[in-house]
Design brief:
Blueprint lengths: L2 E3 L2 E3 L3 E3 L8 H4 L10 E2 L16 E3 L5 E3 L8 H15 L4 E5 L4 H14 L4 E5 L16 H12 L6 E4 L7 H10 L4 E4 L3 E3 L2 E2 L4 E2 L6 E4 L4 H14 L5 E4 L5 H10 L3 E4 L2 H4 L3 H15 L13
Parallel strand pairs: 3-16, 4-7, 7-8, 8-9, 9-10, 10-15, 15-16
Antiparallel strand pairs: 1-2, 5-6, 6-14, 11-14, 12-13
The structure holds flavin mononucleotide.
């Protein structure tokens, strides 16, 4: 089940996605964390953030959910001083730090701190959060802005930098190529798809933020298509495939589309053991499909 993200070796491709496992401790009561391929922790910003007003979750039946959490996090000081050591006490594998910002300066400040003060394996730069104003997704919707953030972050860290891309664009390949040309070591996609629900009795949007990010099984075909497009547009660049994965079958499909590893998000919120159950099932499924090594199927379709 081993796979690689650049030079980082993962014992399996399964990674809980940023924002769906907090800083890891939430999961430690449900599973042996050390079975995970890696873990992507909650988006971290320079200052602490309370996030958006409630309600900030809207369920969408079996197809998934909308969230407008708004990057709630305790800020980089506390993440480094408290959350990181607490996670390290229960988990020794690769940690993917997820960073967000509202200016280039925010991104570089937080990435430099993480570079110097943690043992992060990868810095995942979120330029795709749809739930905050004046930041987040704004950096991920034009090739120029994506390249600018990438260049700035690469200048302050020697760690591998993976840019996390938004599906809320016309041509994701152009943004992927611009990020890679600016120095990105890898790409992670997709973040959530901008959506909305209305409470027809109250005649008002369900989310206090009005719009939110849609994730879960309903976005799987979109994510798969985008991972395939991006992996073809950026040959040789490792891609983490994310969006709607709930089963081991989905993991195989995402890897056949071009992903070297996968992140699993909304599935953790309905089943906190989703990741380890997928890891349990993978070897049996690989046998059924005559797959000797997962690395042999990356991009095969
Ligand atoms: C409640 C929630 C919070 C999230 N927070 C973040 C975040 O802080 N940073 C980030 O890059 N993505 C965040 N995401 C996006 C997920 O990491 C993932 O890209 C997206 O949900 C698609 O995957 P899924 O369909 O498996 O959920 C969040 C998603 C959810 C559902």
């Amino acid at each position: 089940m081993e796979t690689k993200l650049g030079n980082i070796v993962l014992k399996n491709p399964v990674i809980p996605a940023s924002g769906t496992c907090g800083f890891g401790l939430e999961m430690s009561g449900w599973m042996d964390m050390n079975r995970l391929g890696a873990i992507a922790i909650k988006g971290t910003t320079r200052e602490a953030r309370y996030g958006n007003p409630q309600p900030r979750i809207a369920e969408c039946g079996a197809t998934g959910m909308l969230n407008a959490v708004g990057l709630q996090n305790p800020g980089v000081d506390e993440v480094i001083a408290k959350e990181w050591p607490a996670l390290r006490a229960v988990y020794q594998g690769p940690i993917i730090a997820n960073v967000s910002g509202f200016s280039i300066d925010d991104y570089t400040y937080t990435c430099r701190r993480i570079d110097q003060e943690t043992d992060a394996a990868i810095i995942e730069v979120n330029i795709s959060c749809p739930n905050v104003h004046n930041g987040g997704m704004a950096f991920g919707t034009t090739p120029e802005a994506a390249a600018e953030v990438t260049r700035a972050v690469k200048a302050v860290t020697a760690k591998p930098v993976f840019m996390k891309l938004s599906p809320n664009v016309t041509d994701i390949s152009a943004i992927a190529r611009a990020s890679v040309n600016a120095g990105a070591d890898g790409l992670c996609l997709i973040n959530t798809v901008l959506g909305m629900r209305i409470d027809i009795r109250r005649r008002k949007p369900v989310l206090a933020n009005r719009y939110g990010g849609y994730s879960g099984p309903g976005i799987f075909p979109i994510a798969l298509r985008m991972v395939n497009q991006v992996s073809k547009a950026c040959p040789g660049t490792p891609v983490i495939g994310c969006g709607g994965i709930t089963t081991a079958e989905d993991v195989i499909e995402m890897m056949m589309a071009g992903a070297s590893a996968v992140e699993i998000g909304a599935a953790n919120l309905t089943n906190p053991q989703a990741c380890t159950q997928i890891i349990d099932r993978l070897p049996q499924l690989m046998d059924e499909l005559h797959i000797d090594h997962l690395q042999n199927i990356i991009g095969i379709a």
